[in-house]
Amino acid sequence: MDIKTKLISAAESLFDRHGFTATGMDRLTQAAGMSSRTLYKHAGSKHSLIAKVLSERDKRFLRRLDVSSVDALFKALEDWVRVEGCRGCLFLRAYGETGGDVPEIAEVMAAHKAGVWNKIQEIVALETSGRGDEQLAEQILILFEGATATAIYRGADAVTTARHCAVRLVKQASS
Amino acid sequence: MDIKTKLISAAESLFDRHGFTATGMDRLTQAAGMSSRTLYKHAGSKHSLIAKVLSERDKRFLRRLDVSSVDALFKALEDWVRVEGCRGCLFLRAYGETGGDVPEIAEVMAAHKAGVWNKIQEIVALETSGRGDEQLAEQILILFEGATATAIYRGADAVTTARHCAVRLVKQASS
DNA sequence: GACAATGTAAAATGATCGTTTTACATTGAA
DNA sequence: TTCAATGTAAAACGATCATTTTACATTGTC
Q1: A143 touches chain B (CB under 8 A)
Q2: Which of B18, B92, B101 is the closest to A152 by Cβ?
Q3: Where does this protein have coiled-coil stretches (chains A, B) (predicted)?
Q4: What is the pLDDT at residue A174?
Q5: Which is more confident, B175 or A30?
Q6: DSSP secondary structure letters along B12-38
């Protein structure tokens, strides 16, 4: 595995498991199996490393959301939380831990959320033949965020419940 | 104002604004206007202070949710985010920042979520004359969490959208 | 075979972390 | 008036923070 990939994937799991601020650079270097000199050559800084981790996660996440129905969208989220665990949205967590004060991080968060929002709008338009309005899409988005958050303490079943709800809303808008 | 109250309210706004781990004890003592000796006499430790802050917030939040309809429930949440700001659920943020590894914090989070869940179940049962099942209540809970999370980057309007959706779901179950 | 790049290991940087301690002032009740 | 409680101010604690530096080994390439 490429050294940069190894660093980013090690950092991602540590950040996800223990939080961003609580994870120190020495733990990062140890987990990634490299010297701090090499880490800084590739990452630049801790904030930059966080941004890179989020950027990679964004790609991986959106790749999973490459579907064309609301039902499939929530099934994809269900798969995600079963594989990657349900510790909440890592983008919002990073944003919250840094108080929204780190531009690099705030920007990746905003870009990620814009990506998800676009995907949902696209799917809703597709499934309702354009009859679905922006309000419906925002309701789906809220269910999506809600499922992610609720799964933290109620488990992956919350995503299934959200899926049933979302599918029903879209059906009602299409009929 | 009581010294303990002053400490907890100063701590709450700093934690909310800058994050838990990122907020140091010196900044806390400065904002609360007291020496670190006094702070530790009242709080015991930082983790304990976080737990106390969350515990007080839990009471204040649930007091606001003393309503008897889903519409009023989401209107209460709307008021909350307009007054207190929308930086996401502070309980889930604390839980995430500590990796769920601090029992004091994990317990307050769980207790808070149980309280919200009970309240929602109560309201749903009331509004549907017992016709609403557990699934409906969980859908309302997911919309509630989703509104809180989405409001971080889309503003308080997300709560209004969630309210419309929740009211519709309850109406459909009651008819 | 020299050179630039890329890596490791480990020490040093100065700042900040959470927490405790030392020394002293104020207060209210016995 | 003395005692215990409660507060402040400030220094000290050892640990850890993110980051840089020093010294050295291993490469692939011209």
Answers
A1: yes
A2: B92
A3: none
A4: 87
A5: A30
A6: HHHHHHH-TTTS-HHHHHHHHTS-HHH
